[in-house]
Design brief:
alpha+beta, 60s Ribosomal Protein L30, Chain: A, six-stranded mixed sheet, 6 strands, globular
Length: about 130
């Protein structure tokens, strides 16, 4: 059986990976940064702008997999500076509603493409599909 993968228009991959892989009931989305854009003019921006762009990219991938933010069950956030935690949280709260998905936030030494935040998701297909 082959791997079923999803890729979204307007979102680039910074390596040899799919934007998302379908595992039946669960869909695993690769991490996205603000720099994973096919736009030729990439402005890194501050942590708020970067976090917003992460979600724009991730939600495009969810849409390609016929899913929405309501289907997200787990989020992993990687920050290069935990001083950005509060600002990232403000954007995060705008993208999900209660009850929020489970989440882990990890400080890392560095991220691809010079990003300050990277976010990955796991989504669960609704039972009726």
């Amino acid at each position: 059986m082959g791997r079923k993968a999803y890729n979204a228009k307007g979102v680039s991959a910074s390596g040899p990976y799919s934007h998302a892989v379908d595992a039946g009931e669960l869909v695993f989305l690769s991490g996205q940064t603000a720099m994973n854009s096919e736009s030729k003019t990439i402005n890194k921006g501050n942590i708020t702008e970067q976090t917003k762009k992460c979600f724009v990219n991730l939600f495009k991938v969810l849409e390609a997999a016929n899913l929405t933010s309501d289907d997200v069950v787990k989020v992993n956030v990687y920050l290069t500076d935990m001083n950005n935690f509060s600002e990232m949280n403000e954007v995060y709260k705008m993208n999900f509603s209660e009850p929020y998905p489970a989440r882990t936030c990890i400080a890392v030494l560095g991220l691809p493409l010079g990003a300050d935040v990277e976010i990955e998701l796991v989504a669960k297909r609704p039972c009726n599909e």
